[in-house]
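Database export, one record per block. Field names are fixed; values are copied verbatim from the stored entry.
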Amino acid sequence: MYYRHAFHAGNFADVFKHLLLRELVRAMQRKPKPFLFLDTHAGRGRYDLALAEGGGRAPEWPDGIGRLWAAPGLPAPLADLVAAVREYNRRCGAEPGTLRFYPGSPVFAQLLARPDDRLALCELQPDEAAALDRESVYAQKARVYPVDGYGAPRAMLPPLERRALVLIDPPFEAADEMSRVAVAVEEALARSPAAVVAVWYPLSARVATAPLFRLLRERRLAPTLIAEFRVRADSAEAGLGGCGMAMINPPWQFDIAMRPVLAQLARLLALDAGASSKLDWLVPEAP
């Protein structure tokens, strides 16, 4: 696998993804009963932003978390995300007030986890899994599994807790990646029909969302909310300018709560006049 997230850590796509992930976790925690957080492609957990410097490419975090770091008047979900990153840097020993480290999805989830919430963190790449294992100290019930995360829904669902939040965030390197995602989603919902499943994806000509969207729309497996976010107008030459997240079985009124926050985030992270955000139902909730 040639993809490594260190160069991209903390960019606009991470901020978008982690904003939604944190709010999904918090929504799950409105009920006292514990739940399983299953991360199918977890990565290493901690990213040193200093390592993104050099190599002839500008780092991406200054136009992501860097823009929010000292921004005034942030809406509560964004302010809370920045506060979590500040606290994480303090724990990691960064100089006071300095943005040096950025947490990945499994660490964000661990930092929010309650004592009885359980985390299953899957990472196939040995070096990434080893690094993640060293980072899995922020929650009492976090365990790293060095396995192919596409098989995790079949192997780990339904959970003993009877409640689950599943994050599917693969590197999107293979031509059939979204087809594999669709299979994983179908297996997750077959085993845990009420599970909240979140799928992150790039808005890119090389990644076709059709297999997943067709499955969800035609099979109507569960209510599905689609969030998409752009920091610039679509351009084949400009690199990744947008991303999305499909949220299956989203919390009640999640779209209402997050629509203004995503709109504000698009204004804060805009690179040109093409920046935008939208939230639409692919499969509406039952009336």
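Remark 1: The first strand starts at residue 36 and ends at 39.
Remark 2: The mean pLDDT is 93.
End of record.
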